[in-house]
Amino acid sequence: MSRKYELRLESHELDTLHIKVCRVLREAILRGHFQPGERLVQEELASSLGVSRMPVREALRKLETEGLVIIEPHRGAIVKSLSVEDIQEIYGLRAQFERMAVEMSVEHMSQDDIQQLEELVVAMEQSTDSTVFIECNIEFHRLLISRCTWKRLVTFIETLWNGFPQQTPQMLSDQTEKSNKEHRQILDAIKNGDAAEAGRLVHGHIKRTGDNLVKSLQESLQ
What we know:
Elements: H1 17-30, E1 39-40, H2 42-49, H3 53-65, E2 69-72, E3 76-79, H4 84-106, H5 111-126, H6 130-144, H7 151-162, H8 175-191, H9 195-221
Antiparallel strand pairs: 1-3, 2-3
Helix pairs in contact: 1-3, 2-3, 4-7, 4-9, 5-6, 5-8, 8-9
């Protein structure tokens, strides 16, 4: 296990212990503090976090469902590397599921919701700070599906979000400019009350991002 990164639980968080552990480990994996193929030893993680093995074991099982680790017999949890097929699967599912969720969500959005979306779009258009852009982008997509009444669908989408770092696409060249244009188009469709068009635009936005990620990964492997 990597020794350079300090794992730390936030004492003020209200989530159950294994959810706190899961959040810390997920962030460490997505930020590259644990490398693909690295073995995550329950005893070492528990010692670093100051918890028993049980919440660590439960957290690793959840991370397995998110596609971030593989639990192998007699070896334990191994950090999984993302392949072209993983990205195609994640973004293909996201495009379909988020289209459905947005179409349902738009029907129940309030003027306050739309105003928040407007503020996020403006913040992204004006931002010169990548961290601010990423935070606004994540909140924009979260708010898009926040009024969806199919809670299982929302849970599926959140699992897909957790399985891939949402900040990664913004590191691709020209991604920010294209995303800003597409976000504005999605917002305009919502303002017009056109749920089907908003869903179609979200589908295209996510699919394009996934296609660009696949292309970038394939080029890096050549």
